[in-house]
Specification:
The chain is of the alpha+beta class and 344 residues long. The protein is 59% helix and 8% strand. A six-stranded antiparallel sheet has the order 1-6-2-3-4-5.
Amino acid sequence: MASHRRPKQPSRTRVTVLTTAAAAAVALSANAANAAPSEKPSKSEVKAKVDKLYEQAEQATEKYNGAKEKQEKLQKEISTIQDNVARGQQDLNKLRDGLGSLATAQYRSGGIDPSVQLFLSSHPDDFLDKASTLDQLSSQQVESLKKIQDKQRELAQERSEASDKLKDLASTRTELGKKKKEVQGKLAAAQKLLNTLTAKEKAELAQQQARANRSSSERVHLGDAPPASGMAGAAFSAAQSKIGSPYVYGASGPSSFDCSGLTSWAYAQAGVSIPRTSQAQANAGTRIYSVSQLKVGDLVLFYGDLHHIGLYAGNGQVLHAPHTGASVRYESISNMPFQFGVRI
């Protein structure tokens, strides 16, 4: 027979617990909703973080530039050594051909002496160590054989040097790839932060950057500071012609630049070759530690690790390629931590 008992009603205690839990869940959801807006960084916070990432990207860029410069130098050195080895091998072959001619002449005059057969050997060192063998050779033959020995040793040394440089080149290429990845990672992180801004906030930041670029592209009052020398003046004029050109990491002109790319390109236009990286350029001339003693065209180094550089423009201004998203422009030297100047 079916049971007609009424369903058991939940206890008052259970109802109270469920009600309390539901209320807590609603409260937590409300708190989370209220907290969400405050967790989103403000436009100024985003800009500060982006600026920091750009600075870190520039630090990595100068290391990337250094690895790239080393790679290019190694490639040139290896090419030179390989050319020398090829020419040396030709010289060695000619020397051996000469010894072969001597052996042929001796054969025609009465047969080849056993000692002469060593001339055609690729490893004549053992024979030269034997005084009895030397006694049986003419002075001309001894001289030819010593030339072969010297050339063989020279070629062996050059081949060993080329091998070492090829290993160094492989290591440098690996380092170059790591630094390029690091730069790209910093720039991607900066872009990700910028993407959190509203369209209005992005437009405001873009306008702020445009104003900074535009104000510097107009001729600012640079004072009457004379250039350090004719070449410094020529380098500064070359850099001025690139005001408004975009900053691109690893670029050294003529249409885009990073900080040390601009300074090295400018001095190249003046006929002066200086190193590629800011840290190396810091040692390219006489250091000047007082801003008041700087002259137009002097290099100006910033930050403790010297990862940023520009050209002194006079009146407390520096002409430089600032960072990603900016263009070559004038800026107050006090906007960055000045370390010292360098007069080429």
